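Letters spell out the chain; backbone shape is given numerically. Both lines appear below:
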Amino acid sequence: MAAEDDSDRLVSSAETPDTQYRFRGLTPGRYTLSVRAVNSQGQQGDPASTQFSIAAPAAPSFIELTPGYFQITATPRQAVYDPTVQYEFWFSDTQIADIRKVEPPYWRRGEQT
């Protein structure tokens, strides 16, 4: 797999007898993935390639608040539904002034898909 950041650097290379492979730890950016079959004699077939990108998901378009009995349910809503997006929820007794600096005394309250 090569990164498309004007360097075309090789990000990862692997051989596996399996029919699938999981690439982990990819940073945001554009990539080209090439795959080829190799038989038991080491003969290589032609490669098949595809391009893809990894980017941070969009912020929710709005947050739906549903009141309950001594509780409130916060449901993030997307402009375009993406089932792979998860949300992290943070809570503080005071307004969080800078979301980039979420740290104690704020508490992580969980995730929602």
In short: The first strand starts at residue 2 and ends at 3.
